[in-house]
Amino acid sequence: MDITVVLIGNLAILQAYVQQLENSRLKLTQLEQELQRARQQGIFISSSVDQSHSMSGNGALAFDMEYARWLEEHNRQISELRAGVSAHASDTDLRSVVDKIMSHYDEIFRLKGNAAKADVFHVLSGMWKTPAERCFLWLGGFRPSEVLKLLSTQLEPLTEQQLSGISNLQQSSQQAEDALSQGMEALQQSLAETLAGSLSSSGSTGNVANYMGQMAMAMGKLGTLENFLRQVLTLFSKCIFVT
Question: 59-72: per-residue pLDDT in tens?
Answer without folding.
Answer: 788 888 999 999 99
